[in-house]
Specification:
The protein has about 190 residues and is an alpha/beta fold. The chain is built from 6 helices and 10 strands; from the N terminus they run βααβββαβββαβαβαβ.
Length: about 190
């Protein structure tokens, strides 16, 4: 079996549960998905490195620099049985912290950057399709909250793979994800 982790989803769940998000936590969660009687082939982790670049602030027009490190992703990729699949984090501008924004003078501090992951869902779907075509696994354990994975889930099941939807504590998966998985598996925090 293989464990596929949507990093954006797991990060949100960890933050809600007040856990520090780092490679050690990700590794423990991944191995916590696997039952004793199952044989693990690989853990695939999907995420985007931080955005790096210069942008203009929304009110003042001053330039500001975003700089982040993907060192933690390289650390994760070096762990046993892990492979990291990277999408791209795109800067989409700024959005207001509070709505409505009328009736006051706005400042740069009234806005937060708006980023969008690109290519993560596609990579998850392609890897699922490859597992189904090559039959290198019989079961995929999927940690995601994204219904964009439904077509890949359906395709895998049609080709005979079992899909296990891993659910973190206090998270209720979307019905569409449950409809197209074979099992829901509760996974606790380490």
């Amino acid at each position: 079996m293989a464990v596929l982790i949507d990093g954006g989803h797991l990060r949100v769940q960890a933050k809600l549960a007040k856990h520090k998000y780092n490679p050690a936590l990700i590794e423990k969660v991944a191995h916590g998905c696997v039952h004793e009687r199952e044989s693990l082939l690989r853990i695939l982790y999907y995420d985007c490195p931080p955005f790096n670049g210069e942008v203009r602030l929304p009110v003042s027009g001053a330039r500001t620099m975003f700089a982040g490190s993907d060192r933690w992703m390289r650390e994760l990729a070096a762990k046993d049985l892990f492979a990291v699949r990277q999408g791209v984090l795109k800067f989409r501008g700024f959005k207001p912290k509070k709505i409505p924004v009328a009736d006051r003078d706005l400042k740069d501090e009234d806005f937060v950057p708006d980023f969008e992951q690109k290519g993560v869902d596609m990579r998850i779907g392609l890897d699922m399709a490859n597992f189904a075509a090559d039959r290198t696994v019989d079961r995929i354990i999927l940690i995601t909250g994204d219904t964009d994975c439904v077509p890949a889930m359906k395709s895998c099941r049609i080709r005979g793979l079992q899909i296990v939807l891993a659910a973190m504590p206090d998270h209720k998966p979307a019905p569409e994800l449950l409809w197209h998985s074979d099992f829901e598996r509760a996974v606790g925090w380490p």
